[in-house]
Amino acid sequence: MIKHLRSAADLDAETATLILDTAGEMAALAGREVKKLPTLRGRTVVNLFYEDSTRTRISFEAAAKRLSADVINFSAKGSSVSKGESLKDTALTLQAMGADAVVIRHPASGAPHRLASWVDGSVINAGDGTHEHPTQALLDAYTMRSRLGRIAGLRVVIVGDVLHSRVARSNVLLLSTLGAKVTLVGPPTLVPVDIAAALEPSTEVSYDLDSVLPDADVVMMLRVQTERMQDSFFPSAREYSRRYGLDVPRMRKLPEHAIVMHPGPMNRGMEIAPEVADSSRSTIVEQVANGVSARMAVLYLLLGGKA
Ligand code: NCD
After folding, report:
1. Which pLDDT band holds residue 306 (cuts at 50, 70, 90)?
2. How many whole angstroms from 42 Cα to the centroid of ligand 1?
3. Which residues bind L-aspartate (predicted)?
Protein backbone atom coordinates (compact mmCIF):
# COMPACT_ATOMS: atom_id res chain seq x y z
CA MET A 1 0.00 0.00 0.00
CA ILE A 2 1.10 3.56 -0.68
CA LYS A 3 2.07 5.72 2.29
CA HIS A 4 0.75 9.10 1.11
CA LEU A 5 -2.17 10.13 -1.07
CA ARG A 6 -1.01 13.41 -2.63
CA SER A 7 -2.31 12.91 -6.14
CA ALA A 8 -4.72 10.60 -7.93
CA ALA A 9 -1.63 9.64 -9.93
CA ASP A 10 -0.33 7.91 -6.76
CA LEU A 11 -2.98 5.24 -7.43
CA ASP A 12 -2.61 2.42 -9.93
CA ALA A 13 -5.73 0.51 -10.98
CA GLU A 14 -5.16 -2.24 -8.43
CA THR A 15 -4.73 0.11 -5.47
CA ALA A 16 -7.66 2.29 -6.52
CA THR A 17 -9.90 -0.75 -6.87
CA LEU A 18 -8.84 -2.02 -3.45
CA ILE A 19 -9.78 1.36 -1.94
CA LEU A 20 -13.19 1.30 -3.68
CA ASP A 21 -13.86 -2.26 -2.52
CA THR A 22 -12.86 -1.36 1.03
CA ALA A 23 -15.11 1.73 0.85
CA GLY A 24 -17.96 -0.66 -0.01
CA GLU A 25 -17.31 -2.59 3.18
CA MET A 26 -17.15 0.64 5.17
CA ALA A 27 -20.47 1.74 3.65
CA ALA A 28 -22.11 -1.47 4.88
CA LEU A 29 -21.16 -0.34 8.39
CA ALA A 30 -23.10 2.93 8.02
CA GLY A 31 -26.36 0.96 8.06
CA ARG A 32 -25.57 -0.57 11.46
CA GLU A 33 -26.70 0.86 14.76
CA VAL A 34 -23.12 1.05 16.05
CA LYS A 35 -21.15 2.69 13.25
CA LYS A 36 -17.73 2.46 14.84
CA LEU A 37 -14.80 0.13 14.16
CA PRO A 38 -11.91 -0.17 16.65
CA THR A 39 -9.26 -0.33 13.87
CA LEU A 40 -7.49 3.00 14.43
CA ARG A 41 -7.78 3.12 18.22
CA GLY A 42 -4.78 4.96 19.67
CA ARG A 43 -3.80 6.48 16.32
CA THR A 44 -3.92 10.24 15.76
CA VAL A 45 -5.34 11.90 12.66
CA VAL A 46 -4.84 15.66 12.26
CA ASN A 47 -7.10 17.66 9.96
CA LEU A 48 -5.06 20.66 8.82
CA PHE A 49 -7.34 23.06 6.95
CA TYR A 50 -5.91 26.29 5.55
CA GLU A 51 -8.88 26.83 3.25
CA ASP A 52 -12.62 26.89 3.85
CA SER A 53 -14.40 23.59 3.65
CA THR A 54 -17.70 22.12 4.76
CA ARG A 55 -18.09 18.66 3.24
CA THR A 56 -14.48 17.55 3.08
CA ARG A 57 -13.53 18.55 6.62
CA ILE A 58 -16.62 17.04 8.23
CA SER A 59 -16.24 13.94 6.09
CA PHE A 60 -12.63 13.30 7.12
CA GLU A 61 -13.53 13.92 10.75
CA ALA A 62 -16.45 11.49 10.61
CA ALA A 63 -14.29 8.91 8.80
CA ALA A 64 -11.48 9.06 11.36
CA LYS A 65 -13.92 8.94 14.29
CA ARG A 66 -15.77 5.93 12.88
CA LEU A 67 -12.43 4.15 12.84
CA SER A 68 -11.90 5.17 16.52
CA ALA A 69 -8.86 7.38 15.82
CA ASP A 70 -8.11 10.42 17.96
CA VAL A 71 -8.92 13.42 15.79
CA ILE A 72 -7.34 16.85 16.07
CA ASN A 73 -8.95 19.57 13.98
CA PHE A 74 -6.71 22.46 13.09
CA SER A 75 -7.99 25.36 11.08
CA ALA A 76 -5.71 28.19 10.05
CA LYS A 77 -8.12 30.80 11.37
CA GLY A 78 -7.61 31.18 15.10
CA SER A 79 -4.25 29.35 15.09
CA SER A 80 -0.66 30.65 15.06
CA VAL A 81 -0.88 30.66 11.26
CA SER A 82 -2.65 34.00 11.59
CA LYS A 83 0.47 35.13 13.50
CA GLY A 84 2.54 34.21 10.45
CA GLU A 85 3.72 30.73 11.37
CA SER A 86 4.98 28.84 8.34
CA LEU A 87 3.70 25.49 7.12
CA LYS A 88 7.03 23.96 8.05
CA ASP A 89 6.84 25.09 11.68
CA THR A 90 3.26 23.89 11.92
CA ALA A 91 4.37 20.56 10.45
CA LEU A 92 7.12 20.22 13.04
CA THR A 93 4.58 20.85 15.80
CA LEU A 94 2.35 18.09 14.42
CA GLN A 95 5.36 15.83 14.13
CA ALA A 96 6.20 16.46 17.80
CA MET A 97 2.63 15.49 18.72
CA GLY A 98 3.01 12.19 16.90
CA ALA A 99 0.42 12.51 14.15
CA ASP A 100 -0.05 9.20 12.32
CA ALA A 101 -1.86 10.90 9.45
CA VAL A 102 -2.19 14.52 8.40
CA VAL A 103 -5.09 15.49 6.16
CA ILE A 104 -4.23 18.82 4.54
CA ARG A 105 -6.21 21.38 2.55
CA HIS A 106 -4.13 24.33 1.41
CA PRO A 107 -4.45 27.16 -1.13
CA ALA A 108 -0.98 26.43 -2.55
CA SER A 109 -0.66 23.66 -5.13
CA GLY A 110 1.98 21.21 -3.93
CA ALA A 111 1.65 21.93 -0.19
CA PRO A 112 0.95 18.23 0.60
CA HIS A 113 4.17 17.25 -1.21
CA ARG A 114 6.17 19.67 0.94
CA LEU A 115 4.44 18.51 4.10
CA ALA A 116 5.26 14.87 3.37
CA SER A 117 8.97 15.72 3.56
CA TRP A 118 8.59 17.17 7.07
CA VAL A 119 6.42 14.63 8.89
CA ASP A 120 6.77 10.88 9.45
CA GLY A 121 3.06 10.13 9.20
CA SER A 122 0.91 9.66 6.11
CA VAL A 123 -0.11 12.80 4.23
CA ILE A 124 -3.51 12.92 2.57
CA ASN A 125 -4.29 15.73 0.15
CA ALA A 126 -7.76 17.16 0.84
CA GLY A 127 -7.41 19.77 -1.91
CA ASP A 128 -4.33 21.84 -2.78
CA GLY A 129 -5.00 25.04 -4.68
CA THR A 130 -6.07 24.35 -8.25
CA HIS A 131 -4.00 21.15 -8.32
CA GLU A 132 -5.66 18.00 -6.94
CA HIS A 133 -8.28 16.51 -4.66
CA PRO A 134 -7.74 12.75 -4.86
CA THR A 135 -10.26 11.61 -2.23
CA GLN A 136 -12.99 13.51 -4.10
CA ALA A 137 -12.08 11.51 -7.22
CA LEU A 138 -12.28 8.29 -5.19
CA LEU A 139 -15.72 9.09 -3.80
CA ASP A 140 -16.88 10.10 -7.27
CA ALA A 141 -15.58 6.84 -8.76
CA TYR A 142 -17.26 4.93 -5.93
CA THR A 143 -20.55 6.72 -6.66
CA MET A 144 -20.33 5.93 -10.39
CA ARG A 145 -19.56 2.30 -9.71
CA SER A 146 -22.41 1.88 -7.25
CA ARG A 147 -24.94 3.59 -9.54
CA LEU A 148 -23.80 2.21 -12.90
CA GLY A 149 -22.06 -1.02 -11.91
CA ARG A 150 -18.65 -0.32 -13.45
CA ILE A 151 -16.14 2.38 -14.34
CA ALA A 152 -14.26 0.88 -17.28
CA GLY A 153 -15.83 2.02 -20.53
CA LEU A 154 -18.01 4.75 -18.96
CA ARG A 155 -18.25 8.02 -20.87
CA VAL A 156 -17.81 10.80 -18.32
CA VAL A 157 -18.36 14.44 -19.24
CA ILE A 158 -16.84 17.01 -16.87
CA VAL A 159 -18.35 20.46 -17.40
CA GLY A 160 -17.35 23.98 -16.45
CA ASP A 161 -14.45 25.63 -14.67
CA VAL A 162 -11.86 22.94 -15.39
CA LEU A 163 -9.04 25.47 -15.23
CA HIS A 164 -9.46 26.12 -11.49
CA SER A 165 -10.76 22.67 -10.56
CA ARG A 166 -8.66 20.25 -8.52
CA VAL A 167 -11.71 17.97 -8.62
CA ALA A 168 -11.53 17.80 -12.42
CA ARG A 169 -7.79 17.13 -12.44
CA SER A 170 -7.97 14.28 -9.94
CA ASN A 171 -11.01 12.81 -11.68
CA VAL A 172 -9.32 12.82 -15.09
CA LEU A 173 -6.32 10.97 -13.66
CA LEU A 174 -8.25 8.40 -11.65
CA LEU A 175 -10.97 7.75 -14.23
CA SER A 176 -8.38 7.22 -16.95
CA THR A 177 -6.49 4.78 -14.72
CA LEU A 178 -9.76 2.88 -14.23
CA GLY A 179 -10.57 2.81 -17.95
CA ALA A 180 -13.29 5.47 -18.31
CA LYS A 181 -13.36 7.90 -21.23
CA VAL A 182 -13.37 11.55 -20.12
CA THR A 183 -14.50 14.59 -22.10
CA LEU A 184 -13.89 18.08 -20.70
CA VAL A 185 -16.45 20.73 -21.67
CA GLY A 186 -16.57 24.47 -20.98
CA PRO A 187 -15.73 27.82 -22.50
CA PRO A 188 -12.24 27.91 -24.08
CA THR A 189 -11.11 30.34 -21.36
CA LEU A 190 -11.84 27.73 -18.70
CA VAL A 191 -10.90 24.62 -20.70
CA PRO A 192 -7.59 25.51 -22.39
CA VAL A 193 -6.90 23.31 -25.43
CA ASP A 194 -3.73 21.79 -24.03
CA ILE A 195 -5.09 20.97 -20.56
CA ALA A 196 -6.50 17.58 -21.54
CA ALA A 197 -3.37 16.35 -23.28
CA ALA A 198 -1.17 17.61 -20.46
CA LEU A 199 -3.19 15.64 -17.91
CA GLU A 200 -3.97 12.45 -19.76
CA PRO A 201 -3.62 11.98 -23.54
CA SER A 202 -6.86 10.00 -23.97
CA THR A 203 -8.96 12.91 -22.63
CA GLU A 204 -11.09 14.82 -25.13
CA VAL A 205 -12.18 18.45 -25.14
CA SER A 206 -15.44 19.92 -26.46
CA TYR A 207 -16.88 23.43 -26.36
CA ASP A 208 -20.40 22.29 -27.18
CA LEU A 209 -22.25 20.76 -24.23
CA ASP A 210 -25.40 19.86 -26.19
CA SER A 211 -23.48 17.70 -28.65
CA VAL A 212 -21.85 15.48 -26.00
CA LEU A 213 -24.84 14.89 -23.70
CA PRO A 214 -26.62 12.17 -25.76
CA ASP A 215 -23.59 9.85 -25.39
CA ALA A 216 -22.79 10.50 -21.74
CA ASP A 217 -23.13 8.00 -18.90
CA VAL A 218 -22.08 10.57 -16.31
CA VAL A 219 -22.20 14.38 -16.34
CA MET A 220 -20.13 16.02 -13.64
CA MET A 221 -20.87 19.72 -13.18
CA LEU A 222 -18.15 21.91 -11.65
CA ARG A 223 -18.58 25.03 -9.55
CA VAL A 224 -17.50 28.27 -11.17
CA GLN A 225 -14.70 29.26 -8.78
CA THR A 226 -14.97 33.04 -8.81
CA GLU A 227 -12.71 33.27 -5.74
CA ARG A 228 -9.80 32.01 -7.85
CA MET A 229 -10.51 34.30 -10.81
CA GLN A 230 -8.59 37.53 -11.20
CA ASP A 231 -9.83 38.09 -14.75
CA SER A 232 -13.20 37.79 -16.33
CA PHE A 233 -13.42 34.41 -18.01
CA PHE A 234 -16.91 34.75 -19.52
CA PRO A 235 -19.18 37.68 -20.42
CA SER A 236 -21.82 37.22 -17.70
CA ALA A 237 -23.30 34.63 -15.36
CA ARG A 238 -26.38 34.52 -17.57
CA GLU A 239 -24.33 33.85 -20.69
CA TYR A 240 -22.33 31.14 -18.92
CA SER A 241 -25.46 29.48 -17.68
CA ARG A 242 -27.11 29.59 -21.10
CA ARG A 243 -24.20 27.81 -22.78
CA TYR A 244 -22.79 25.58 -20.05
CA GLY A 245 -25.41 25.32 -17.32
CA LEU A 246 -27.31 22.06 -16.89
CA ASP A 247 -31.01 22.86 -16.94
CA VAL A 248 -34.02 20.58 -17.41
CA PRO A 249 -34.21 20.71 -21.26
CA ARG A 250 -30.50 19.82 -21.41
CA MET A 251 -30.87 17.05 -18.86
CA ARG A 252 -33.52 15.48 -21.15
CA LYS A 253 -30.83 15.00 -23.81
CA LEU A 254 -29.06 12.49 -21.57
CA PRO A 255 -29.60 8.75 -21.98
CA GLU A 256 -32.15 7.24 -19.56
CA HIS A 257 -29.52 5.70 -17.25
CA ALA A 258 -27.15 8.71 -17.06
CA ILE A 259 -26.37 10.33 -13.71
CA VAL A 260 -25.66 13.96 -12.78
CA MET A 261 -22.88 14.69 -10.28
CA HIS A 262 -21.55 17.80 -8.53
CA PRO A 263 -18.86 17.89 -5.82
CA GLY A 264 -20.50 20.81 -4.01
CA PRO A 265 -20.77 23.57 -3.06
CA MET A 266 -23.20 24.36 -5.89
CA ASN A 267 -24.10 27.68 -7.44
CA ARG A 268 -27.73 26.75 -7.98
CA GLY A 269 -29.06 28.48 -11.07
CA MET A 270 -25.61 29.03 -12.53
CA GLU A 271 -23.88 25.77 -13.47
CA ILE A 272 -26.84 23.65 -12.41
CA ALA A 273 -30.57 24.34 -12.24
CA PRO A 274 -32.23 23.59 -8.88
CA GLU A 275 -34.66 21.11 -10.54
CA VAL A 276 -31.67 19.18 -11.91
CA ALA A 277 -29.77 19.23 -8.63
CA ASP A 278 -32.82 17.82 -6.83
CA SER A 279 -33.82 15.32 -9.54
CA SER A 280 -33.61 11.54 -9.22
CA ARG A 281 -30.63 11.51 -11.62
CA SER A 282 -28.63 13.64 -9.23
CA THR A 283 -26.15 11.83 -6.97
CA ILE A 284 -25.10 14.96 -5.07
CA VAL A 285 -26.30 13.86 -1.63
CA GLU A 286 -25.06 10.30 -2.22
CA GLN A 287 -21.62 11.68 -3.06
CA VAL A 288 -21.43 13.25 0.39
CA ALA A 289 -22.40 9.99 2.13
CA ASN A 290 -19.97 8.03 -0.04
CA GLY A 291 -17.25 10.51 0.88
CA VAL A 292 -17.20 9.23 4.45
CA SER A 293 -16.86 5.60 3.30
CA ALA A 294 -14.15 6.44 0.76
CA ARG A 295 -12.14 8.42 3.34
CA MET A 296 -12.52 5.65 5.91
CA ALA A 297 -11.07 3.26 3.35
CA VAL A 298 -8.15 5.61 2.61
CA LEU A 299 -7.32 6.18 6.29
CA TYR A 300 -7.67 2.49 7.09
CA LEU A 301 -5.47 1.27 4.25
CA LEU A 302 -2.82 4.01 4.45
CA LEU A 303 -2.45 3.48 8.18
CA GLY A 304 -1.70 -0.20 7.68
CA GLY A 305 -5.10 -1.91 7.64
CA LYS A 306 -5.39 -5.19 5.76
CA ALA A 307 -7.67 -5.64 2.75
C1 NCD B 1 -14.49 21.15 -4.10
C2 NCD B 1 -13.16 21.70 -3.62
O3 NCD B 1 -13.07 22.27 -2.55
O4 NCD B 1 -12.23 21.48 -4.35
N5 NCD B 1 -15.41 20.87 -3.15
C6 NCD B 1 -15.30 19.76 -2.38
O7 NCD B 1 -14.27 19.39 -1.88
N8 NCD B 1 -16.43 19.03 -2.19
C9 NCD B 1 -15.00 21.86 -5.27
C10 NCD B 1 -15.29 23.32 -5.18
O11 NCD B 1 -14.87 24.02 -4.27
O12 NCD B 1 -15.94 23.80 -6.11
Report:
1. low
2. 30
3. 83, 166, 223
